[in-house]
Amino acid sequence: MVSANDVQRLFLQSVISRRVLSADLAKVLWKQSVEAVKAVDDTLQINANEVDGWSNFLASLNKSLDPLDLELSRIRNEVTGRETYALVNRRDDEIARIASDYSPLEISYFRALVEQIMLAPNSSYSVSSLAALREVNSLTSPMTKAQAESILASFVAKGWLLKSKVVFLVSARVVELQPYLSQPTQKRSGLHHLL
């Protein structure tokens, strides 16, 4: 039997493979999910109004996702200025760490970069590309500058960092890193679940 909750299921199935999507696409996927559920049972009362219906849907969706330590977060893209949504994991545990594509050394490098970006003077939240590469000297295990350049390019390609003359965190990733960034420095544990 179909229910209004199936709108959430359909929407999440559409979002999971994308993880980050524009606000316009998110609303299109939501409307298509509403239409698909109503096509099965047109007696269901589902608010499809773009303003309050969307807001209510997001609030309900995030309430449903909360026990799973997931959230659909709204972010403004710093490059385009456009609103985007990201499905983020809010939990740091062993299972989440297994999903990482990066080695412990590469994660340590990313952690060191995040520290330097967050501690940057004048709240610039950026470091020079040269300073980012020098960060390999703070690692306990050796990493060459060439390896650092390669992994830094990977972080940029995956949308974790932006790089021009300086390196800084992407807003979508700041949202995902919030639990990590809000911890005191000595308590910050691995970013494995985010990478």
Topology summary:
Layout: H1 5-16, E1 20-22, H2 23-40, H3 52-65, E2 70-76, E3 83-89, H4 94-98, H5 104-118, E4 126-128, H6 129-134, H7 145-157, E5 161-163, E6 166-169, H8 171-181
Antiparallel strand pairs: 1-3, 2-3, 4-6, 5-6
Helix pairs in contact: 1-2
Q: What does this 3D model show about the protein?
A:
The protein has 195 residues and is α+β, with helices and mostly antiparallel strands. It has two domains: 5-90, Aspartate Aminotransferase, domain 1, CATH 3.90.1150; 95-194, Winged helix-like DNA-binding domain superfamily/Winged helix DNA-binding domain (Arc Repressor Mutant, subunit A, Orthogonal Bundle). It is 48% helix and 14% strand. It is built from eight helices and six strands, in the order αβααββααβααββα. It has a three-stranded antiparallel sheet, with helices on both faces. Strands 4-6-5 form a three-stranded antiparallel sheet. Strand 5 and strand 6 (166-169) form a beta hairpin. Helix 1 packs across helix 2. The longest helix is centred in the first third of the chain and has 18 residues, at 23-40. This is Non-structural maintenance of chromosomes element 1 homolog. One of its GO terms (molecular function) is ubiquitin protein ligase activity. Its main location: nucleus.
